[in-house]
Design brief:
Blueprint: H1 3-15, E1 38-40, H2 50-54, E2 60-64, E3 72-76, H3 86-90, E4 96-98
The structure holds iron/sulfur cluster (2 copies).
Length: 114
């Protein structure tokens, strides 16, 4: 490659818009159906435990909770989640959903525990 071509490419790259997004300074949009962080509505949960049984990564474990009829609820340690959606599909009360939230980077794992 000649110096002329290299210089031309360098100038082109310098003036054209970057293809990368300066995250986290700027937000981006994600498509419908994107599998981001889980959302959990404890008011719908009946503590059946099906979500913890199907989760392939051990993200969900059942813990005692007086607010539910069966006195237990799932705890989601989302640092382990692979966003497969199995828990969403199996939940009989539609208490779990996948959101478009892609902010999954945290300092401490417990920051994304719900
Ligand atoms: S989306 Fe998949 S990996 Fe994540 S908590 Fe649900 S079942 Fe587990
Ligand atoms: S499957 Fe749904 S209703 Fe059952 S424990 Fe999990 S979140 Fe609650």
């Amino acid at each position: 490659m000649s110096w002329g071509v290299l210089l031309k490419e360098a100038i082109k790259s310098f003036v054209k818009k970057p293809v990368t997004i300066p995250y986290p300074i700027k937000e981006t949009s994600v498509p419908d159906g994107y599998r981001g962080l889980l959302s959990f509505d404890i008011t719908k949960c009946i503590g059946c435990g099906l979500c913890s049984q199907v989760c392939p990564t051990g993200t969900i474990r059942m813990i005692p909770d007086e607010r539910t009829k069966t006195k237990r609820r799932p705890l989601f340690e989302l640092a382990k989640c692979v966003f497969c959606g199995s828990c969403v599909e199996v939940c009989p009360r539609k208490a779990i959903s996948l959101t478009k939230n892609y902010h999954t980077a945290v300092i401490r794992k417990d920051e994304i525990t719900i």
